[in-house]
Specification:
Elements (H helix, E strand, L loop, with lengths): L2 H23 L4 H78 L3 H32 L4 E14 L5 E5 L8 E5 L2 E8 L2 H5 L8 E10 L4 E3 L2 E5 L6 E6 L4 E7 L18 E5 L2 E8 L5 E7 L6 E10 L3 E7 L2 E6 L8 E7 L12 E2 L7 E7 L4 E6 L2 E11 L1 H5 L1
Antiparallel strand pairs: 1-20, 2-3, 3-4, 4-5, 6-7, 7-8, 8-9, 10-11, 11-12, 12-13, 14-15, 15-16, 16-17, 18-19, 19-20
Helix pairs in contact: 1-2
Length: 407
């Protein structure tokens, strides 16, 4: 029998004795007292029930808390074991590192050996610099080209077709009059016209030849040279493809080191590689973020796309919209984000005979332009530009730079 049951039994017994005593005395006023005692007894029983329920609840919570604590203690024991194992592993690694350091100290070359290696490295650097100078001199000797930009004289709007951005040009190789059009900033289709007159005609005869390229191109920096299209392959960082337009097949490709991480011109954010052709051959222009975003000029072998030489220029890509090359001199065209009068404000001469500080700013004849591409044609002395969907030709006037041939 529990304590609660015993207490209830005692209270009932006392109540019965009291009732019997009251009845034996026969006092009618004591009936109220009996009812009062019954109510109090009922209240006490309810309170005892509540106490029992609270005791059961507290017992369950205590059990749950104890179980949770046991789980946490178990996890802490596992973590302690893991930390102990990691400390032991770290101790082994530290011991191994100390042994390796001691071994390296014993194998360290003498100071005289280091000095000899530095001298050898210095000789190799001088030899590389000499080789670069020889390459630069080779470009000068093999190509008698001393033209420098004087002004951009006149403007002719040839046609309006295609997207707001694009590229068009003539093949600058001898004996070719073909015109090529690549509309947009990404596509895999090239239009080939037999001549400039054919391009101007509304219904050219023969009609434009549609060439499906093996891979799509990106940007507007393409160029055709000797019947081959050179372009930046889409979805690649810096791969240049050389495609034979007679059968639309890839004949060569190359990856241009350091290129493709920054748009070559900030006003043409979709162009990362800009191909160009001048009197000296094939070039590619790109911007290098590690060089402050300045433009880098690379001379390529048109046959196998091998890099012949690289020049880091002082011309910036910020606010630039395009560039072209005449006789080995890079001319960078600047504008504003809203379109304005394009100007040549920076140049880089690989022969180091002309400098930006010594050259006046060259203005384009049209006051409001927004070029997505500018290509120089060395035989025609013209610039082929794409101006907000208009195919435009600028006439270029040059003068002789006698300092090139005098060297």
């Amino acid at each position: 029998m529990s304590g609660r049951e015993f207490l209830v039994l005692v209270l009932l017994l006392c109540l019965c004795l009291t009732v019997s005593s009251v009845k034996s005395q026969g006092f009618p006023q004591d009936a109220f007292l009996i009812q009062y005692l019954e109510r109090r007894l009922t209240q006490m029983e309810e309170r005892l029930n509540q106490c029992e329920q609270n005791t059961v609840s507290i017992t369950q919570k205590t059990y749950d808390l104890s179980s949770g604590m046991r789980g946490h203690l178990s996890a802490l024991n596992v973590l302690r074991s893991e930390v102990k194992n990691q400390l032991e592993s770290m101790s082994v690694r530290v011991d191994r590192m100390e042994r390796e350091l001691e071994y390296l100290e014993n194998k360290m070359p003498a100071l005289s050996d280091i000095e000899m290696e530095e001298a050898l490295l210095e000789q190799q650097i001088k030899a590389a610099e000499l080789d670069q100078l020889k390459k630069k001199a080779k470009i000068k000797v093999e190509n008698d080209c001393n033209a420098a930009l004087s002004q951009i004289k006149s403007l002719k709007i040839v046609k309006k077709m295609g997207d707001t951005s694009g590229s068009w040009f003539k093949d600058p190789s001898d004996g070719s009059n073909k015109v090529f059009v690549l509309s947009g900033i990404r596509n895999d289709t090239l239009l080939e016209y037999e001549s400039l007159q054919s391009f101007l005609d509304k219904t050219p005869a023969p009609p434009a030849k549609v060439i499906q390229l093996p891979s799509p191109w990106q940007g507007t920096g393409h160029m055709v040279y000797n019947g081959f299209l050179y372009y930046h392959r889409a979805d690649t960082l810096n791969q240049i493809l050389k495609v034979d337009l007679s059968n639309a097949s890839v004949v060569d490709s190359t990856l241009l080191p350091g290129a493709g991480r920054l748009p070559v011109y900030s006003l043409n954010s979709n162009t990362y590689l800009d191909m160009a052709v001048d009197e000296l051959g094939l070039w590619v222009i790109h911007a290098d973020p590690e060089y402050g975003g300045n433009l880098v000029l690379t001379k390529l072998d048109k046959g196998n796309l091998a890099v012949e030489y690289i020049w880091d220029t002082q011309c910036k890509s910020h606010d630039a919209e395009g560039a072209f090359i005449i006789c080995g001199t890079l001319y960078v065209v600047f504008n504003t984000h809203y379109g304005g009068r394009s100007t040549v404000q920076c140049l880089y001469d690989i022969h180091d005979t002309t400098h930006s500080a010594e050259s006046p700013v060259v203005f384009f004849p049209k006051r409001y332009t927004s070029h997505s591409s500018i290509h120089y044609h060395p035989r025609d002395n013209q610039l082929y530009a794409w101006d907000d969907g208009y195919q435009t030709i600028y006439q270029v006037e040059t003068h002789s730079n006698d300092n090139v041939t005098a060297e």
